Write the structure tokens for this entry.
Amino acid sequence: MKLSLPMRRLTSQKPAPAVTSTLGALPALHELPTLQAWGNPPRVGGLSKGWGVPYLMVFMLTGTLVLKAQKRSIVHTSQQWVQVYAQVEINGKLSILADAGMRQTHNGKWPSQRLIRTGIGYRLPYRWQGATGIARFSFQQDGRTNRQEWRIWQELNRSHPLGSITLQHRLRAEARFFEQTPSGSEPGGHSFNMRFRYRLQASIPVARLGRKKEESPALMLTVADELFVNTGKEIIHNTLDNNRLIVGPALRINPRLMVAMLYNHQYGHRSVRNTAESAEICWMTLTWKGRLKASDKAGRFQ
């Protein structure tokens, strides 16, 4: 007996298209992409741009729920951060990175942290970008410095477009060396721990304030979440260190200068058992990008 089946059941379906995406230059922590796609968004890797924001929201909610799963005594604070970033491109692959900032509590009355950070960035194969460097942090409490930190850091970045939205992934590892300042009956000392960070950020175009795509000012919306995890023999109660939820507008004045005003909700466990801190942070950033002239032997900036 012959078995006959409709031809449509014997015909295999077309294979799914390969996942491809067009990757641009990697933005740094403080950078936002230029505005390019303003029409109907193309499908990238089989996903439309509508997947970008839900994916980010799921990650943000997951990080927050993991940190808040345990019952802890929560200390609430308000902080103000001001940070300036600079990036100088030496050639097509190598760049110098630097930033400095101040963080304050109690409506700007008391400084809580001062920081300066520098490093070298390098473009890697397959559109990745790596960076490494060193940072110095100074911590204040009640108007006096009570702790210093030297930080050696390394990171990897990669970004990809989803329609007009750009998603950026950043992985960072930090080796943290602390020096506690003696005060009264409290002895000084040294400690060390590693910290690992993952940040997912979406840069959403809102408006272009001119006709030229590259040169005109542009208004962007930044939405991001970053999870911090501590490791080390001295880490007992604060393995899950912090989770940052970040949202706010950014104005790209031109391709080399940008200013942003961000809201940062930071929740984290502390080294004291069953203690956590919830901070409402107003974060202002200024970003400048420069490039060394190839023909300028004096090394002046372009």
User: Anything to note?
Assistant: Residues 1-52 have pLDDT under 50 and may be disordered. The radius of gyration is 23 Å. The longest strand covers residues 189-208.
